[in-house]
Specification:
The protein folds into 2 domains: about 60 residues, no CATH class; about 140 residues, no CATH class. Helices cover about 40% and strands about 20% of the residues. It contains 6 helices and 7 strands, in the order H-H-E-H-E-E-E-E-H-E-H-E-H. A 5-stranded mixed β-barrel has the order 2-4-5-7-6. The two termini are about 60 Å apart.
Length: about 280
């Protein structure tokens, strides 16, 4: 108790008060960073509710030659246009309810208000058997016409082309921009950045499982960990100030003890060296 009081007395000296003020400023900065990390954890875990299941025209949420926005991502959309014969493709390594199979993908020229069309890649169905998927694709090729038809599907962001070999017809990813290398019919307005999974499967194929976006909230543990770290740093700043004060106090105590010993030794040496008086 006496030691704590003595340390506290030393801490009231001007230089240690200034050091404490600095430590508090640093701790406040760390606390602010901790609060920011917690806010980030809440922000990234917040689900923005939006209606993705009410069909809207594709041109209302997406534009050709543009990336897929948050508003368009996983949105059910409608489009009106025509299928292009000779522009169907088979995409491999596609999962459907946990099973690996093939998608049949068509080139749909979606009409715009200006009268021009924009290319839209549409996956019209899935099959676990390559022969079945190929047969369905050939049937679609034969039935293709210039008739204008409506289509409904879920709009999905494009995938990277790294797993596909478009030049040799080996496709395993949905990359609308790369489909331009295989499509024979050009579109004046370019191509949409995303693709559709058709709400109704083509004859002979299974409907592609494309559920609505999950609304589950996932806690961002990394941000929370960082927030705890900053709190620890804030506490360490105050602890460091305390240790510096205590160390300074201990040094003063040691110096005082050494000075006392030196003084005692000097006094003892003088007494031992004194000569007694002679009595005649």
């Amino acid at each position: 108790m006496t030691e704590a009081v003595t340390v506290w007395t030393m801490a009231r000296r001007p230089r240690w008060i200034a050091a404490l003020a600095l430590a508090l400023v640093v701790a406040a900065g760390f606390a602010g960073l901790s609060q920011w990390q917690l806010a980030r954890a809440v922000a990234t875990g917040t689900v923005i509710e939006r209606d993705t299941e009410t069909a809207v025209p594709v041109e209302d949420v997406a534009k050709p030659q543009a990336p897929v926005t948050d508003r368009a991502n996983a949105q059910i959309v409608t489009a009106t246009g025509r299928w292009n014969a000779g522009d169907y493709s088979l995409v491999s390594n596609r999962l459907n309810k946990g099973l690996v199979g093939y998608w049949v993908v068509g080139h749909f020229s979606a009409g715009l208000d200006s009268g021009t069309t924009a290319g839209l890649a549409i996956a019209v169905g899935w099959s676990a058997d390559r022969a079945v998927a190929t047969s369905a694709m050939k049937a679609l090729e034969e039935e293709a016409s210039l008739a204008v038809v409506p289509i409904v599907g879920r709009y999905i962001p494009a995938e990277g082309p790294q797993d596909s070999d478009f030049e040799h017809g080996k496709l395993s990813t949905m990359t609308p921009g790369a489909f331009l290398n295989t499509w024979k019919t050009p579109d004046a307005a370019g191509v949409y950045g995303g693709y559709l999974t058709a709400a109704v499967a083509a004859p002979g194929l299974t409907r592609i499982d494309s559920p609505k976006p999950s609304s589950d909230v996932e806690v961002n543990l990394l941000n929370i960990f960082y927030a705890v770290e900053w709190v620890v740093f804030a506490g360490f700043a105050i602890f460091l100030w305390y240790r510096l004060v205590r160390d300074a106090w201990e040094r003063e105590q040691e110096e005082a003890a050494e000075a006392s010993i030196a003084e005692a030794s000097a006094s003892g040496g003088t007494a031992a060296g004194a000569q007694p008086a002679h009595v005649n």
